[in-house]
Amino acid sequence: MKLFSRFALLASLALPVSFVAGGCSSTTTVDSNGKAISSLDIGGSITLDKGKTQQVSATVKYADGTTSVVTTSADLVWNVGNTDVATVSKDGVVTGVSVGATTLKAIYQGKESDSQPLIVK
What is the pLDDT of residues 35-89, one digit of tens each? Predict the structure, then answer.
């Protein structure tokens, strides 16, 4: 029974699904509700002053054309390339730490956003 419970838990998590047709393959990320994720958008470049904060947002676009804001989702992980330049909270609040440039990206249930430039002046 424990084995079944573990399998059910794993099956409920987001899983990348691969399709192969005619020698070509592609990977589709499916969320925990079974919806195929097309993209994760965190907006464009960010510029802020040292010591200041800025709220950023993350929006997932599904294959069926619908969207959902996932900025504060427990399934979203924010990442800053250089935490000496800026930090980001789990809720998407970016803080300028020191003058410089880095990048910001997010991952939602296995789907990664494009990296966006993050400038602190």
Answer: 788 899 999 999 999 999 999 999 999 988 899 999 989 999 999 999 999 999 9
Residue 23 lies in a domain: no
Q: Which residues, other chains included, contact 67 with Cβ-Cβ below 8 Å and sequence gap of 6+?
A: 59, 60, 61
**What's 53's domain CATH number?**
2.60.40.1080
The pTM for the full model equals 0.71
The total domain count for the chain is 1
Residue whose token pair is 């959902």 = 68
> Could you tell me if 97 and 120 are in contact, meaning their C-beta atoms sit under 8 angstroms apart?
yes
